[in-house]
Amino acid sequence: MRFWLSLALLLTMVLASSSARAESDCANFFGPRCRIDLPTGIRMSYVETGAERADHTLIFVHTDTTSALDWAWTVTALLAARPNYRVFALDMRGAHQTGMPNTDKCRDKPNLCMLPGELAADVLAFMEAKSIEKAVLVGHAWGAGIVRNVALHHPEHVTKLILIGAGAPVQGGAPPPESGALAAFRDRVFAPLGWQKMVESRGVIWPDDVLRLRPTDIDPDAVANIVRNWDISSVADPEIVSLIAAQTATEPLGTWGYGLDPTPRPASQPENFQRLQAPTLAIWATEDAGFKAAQGKLIEALRLAVKKNKGMYFYWKQYGVRPPPVSGDKHDADDIGHDIPWEAPKELAADIVSFVDTGKPTPDLYRTDAPADIHRIVTEPGKAVIVSSQP
């Protein structure tokens, strides 16, 4: 029996035991969640599990086009090692059972209701509603940008910060893309899915009239199509990829973070990393080609924060050893990449536990057993590539 089948059983056991202190669906990554009304105008769904009286509280924020499900396997492994943690995994705006604010702008232009400051405000509002004064914030890719925003502007609420698959901070403010560039980018990333042709054959205008539609409204084979062309991971267990794809297929297209909404976002606000006070762990994997160039800038920004803030320190850790495939096709990848929470969740949990408990990640290198078995994660003790401000 493969590891993930055992892990799925363990997930059921862990979540079942934690539900004794809360409503049973609060700990359910695979179905209905608990929900809470927030003053930011949304009713947020979320997972809550672990110990009620905890040594550490952790809040997990998913990447775009997924939901709290992004963290199911990592949280399972984490709580197996540290049942004394309290864990929340949030469904951000438009994800799973969390809706959008009931305003004209959000209904007509959801792209303009997904700005980093608004998403960070949702996290802060959730913390206040749940009486969480401070927490360890963990974000994956898009979610990393959200928790980073919280840490920069409200450091009093963040004990530690963990960024997984994060890009570089925005310095000096980034202008919105020109409309032509936005359209070209949109067409390139959506073309393999074939959805534009599907809706236009029905007389629907792409992309203006599809923002409220879900992939399942457009494509009878949406989940399999997303597995092949969107939630692509040759390393993660296929069962995990299928579950993630099934979640992605229910996300309204207007909430997808790939420029589908034809209205450009406003210019990004600069991120002043001199404000970053929370000890930070950044994790990146070698086959995450999209963020490779950003890692030097991220490390440089973290070094600047250390110089400006007493008590601030950071670790940057690399997963994998093999470069992205020459073809540029993610289907050809054979080492850990962008989706670390699916591809190496047990190993990621070990680093999170180590950083929360000791202030540093494990020294171990994690990579696939390529070319023999790309689904098997190999641990090489003490051989991780790590950059740190610590001696």
Question: In words, what does this structure look like?
Answer:
With 391 residues, the chain is α/β, with parallel strands linked by helices. It has a single domain, classed as Alpha/Beta hydrolase fold, catalytic domain (Rossmann fold). It has 13 helices and 11 strands. The chain has helices at residues 3-18, 72-81, 104-108, 116-129, 142-153, 179-190, 195-200, 215-218, 222-229, 238-248, 294-308, 340-343, 345-358; strands at 34-37, 43-50, 56-61, 85-90, 135-140, 158-164, 280-285, 314-319, 365-369, 373-380, 385-388. The strands form 2 sheets. The protein has a 9-stranded mixed beta sheet, sandwiched between helices. Strands 9-10 form a two-stranded antiparallel ribbon. β1 (34-37) and β2 form a beta hairpin. The protein is globular and about 60 Å long. Residues 1-23 have low confidence and may be disordered.
The radius of gyration computed from the alpha-carbon positions, rounded to a whole number of angstroms, is: 20 Å
* Helix/strand order: HEEEHEHHEHEHHHHHEHEHHEEE
Please bin the fraction of helical residues: 25-40%
Mean pLDDT: 90
Count all strands and give the number.
Answer: 11
Q: Strand share of the residues?
A: 15-25%
What is the approximate shape? globular
**Class of secondary structure makeup:** alpha/beta
Largest sheet: 9 strands, mixed
Cα distance spanning the termini: 43 Å
Q: How many DSSP H or I helices?
A: 13
